[in-house]
Amino acid sequence: MRRVCLTLPTNRACTATIRAVGEEAAYGARHFGVEVHLLILDSSDAPVLAEHRAAVGALPPVPGVVVHHFDEAEQRAFLREVIARSGVAAPERVLDLMLPSRVSYGACTNRAFLIAEALGCASVHRRDSDSRYQYLDGEPVFPFHHELMALGRQAAEVAGLVSRSRLDPACADRPVAMVGGSFVGEMSVDVGEIRRLDPGVYHDVIGLSVPAGYPEIWRRNLIEESFRGAGTASFTGDRTTLTAVSPMRVDMCNIGFDHEVYGRVPLPPATDTIGSDYFLIHLVHDAGLPGVLHNRHIDNYYTGERRSDSGFLAYQLRLAKYLLSTLYVNAVYARTAAAGAALLDAGGRLRASAVAGFVRDSTRLDRAENGERLDVVDRSYRRLGGRYAAAADVFAARRDQLLDEARTDMEEFALLIDAWEPLTRTSRSEGLRLSGELRGSGPAFELIGSPARGLTP
């Protein structure tokens, strides 16, 4: 039976989301005959973790659904075992990249990728803790439907199952590597207030993420489309497109990847940096791998913590680090776009060594441009005043640290790409045996040396 991993990484209270994603897992098992491994990776503090344990324990048993709820101690134990058996250099450093002490959107998803490989899953499907599903005629609209329908199947076969195809015919014999949608609802609160307070400042700040040299009309369009998702229109019916999916049209709260993608290249493990988990979306697009774009968009919302003063500063720091990261990732994306199908080996699989080379080359860029970025942010935030001026003070005090971290993040990403193949190979070949009931008590597990994709938990 085909196995898939539906994962929910979280570091905050989300019992309602756990219940909703549990329903999506049950939908997938019932309608597609797959074995769904619902994987909750929990970095919450003890009281919230206990709430989540109770929510997981209350999920109704469903044939074909296996639930895994791992706290950070359990994740670390798994990682230590895999890293030790893989023989990678600098194992403690690799462990820090896989499970850093600070928030990392890429690292939490990399952990899901590695555990999914050990469980023998053919794909990973990610949701977020601040996500809900849209409804049509009283029933939830699950993105799982399109992901399970298309992922891993030959594009030529999927062409008959979608609303339309815009895929290059030369790619028709390749399997679908990614299926995704976006979100509907409120624009990101981290930048929405800036846009309301001063559209000019918004243009200047968000424009820092646009690669240099873009014509002004393209630049304005990219700025307008950023952080907005799919708007606010409600779901009324399916529209699906087989295509090379634009990274501007999908979101990581609503994505599914075939294991041939994440099994070869990880996500950047950068800490406190929004957007760090979008790398594979760009890579799939630039390599010309087939994807399906759908309109089963997630209903997005923002927690009260994110609107608090402490939450505000945390997310503005993550935005600033994102803007600094674009110096490097935009250079990498320019190289991957130019390489196109050369990113693939003779078997049509991603060439991790080529990607690592592009990433490593980017770290040699002059960081003076990033100094100018911080200058723009400083002027802009002081113009806005209030808590934005206070954030500017924090950025100014950490200026050298922020500039150093942006480069170091890419150096560490290159290191992780080099280590990734031994890690995924070890996870696949060793397998994962889970003992005991996996509903809220904290699972025990061990690597067992069984063939991948044929395990019985």
Structure keywords:
DUF6271, 16 strands, three-stranded mixed sheet, alpha/beta, 14% strand, nine-stranded mixed sheet, 457 residues, disordered C terminus
Kindly state the number of beta strands. Answer: 16
Low-confidence stretches are 434-444, 449-457
Total number of helical segments? 18
- Helicity range: 40-55%
Count of discrete domains: 1
Average pLDDT number? 92
Spatial sequence of strands, sheet with the most strands = 3-2-1-4-12-9-13-11-8
Biggest sheet record: 9 strands, mixed
* First-residue to last-residue Cα separation: 13 Å
Structural class: alpha/beta
What is the beta-strand fraction? 5-15%
* Backbone CA Rg: 21 Å
- The geometry reads as globular
Pfam families: DUF6271
Structural summary, described in words:
This protein is of the alpha/beta class and 457 residues long. It has one domain (3-447). Helix content is 49%, strand content 14%. It is built from 18 helices and 16 strands. The strands form four sheets. Strands 3-2-1-4-12-9-13-11-8 form a nine-stranded mixed beta sheet, sandwiched between helices. Strands 5-14-10 form a three-stranded mixed beta sheet, with no helix packed on it. It has a two-stranded antiparallel sheet with strand order 6-7. α1 (15-32) links the parallel β1 and β2. The protein is globular, with a radius of gyration of 21 Å. The model is unreliable at 434-444 and 449-457 (pLDDT under 50). Pfam families: DUF6271.
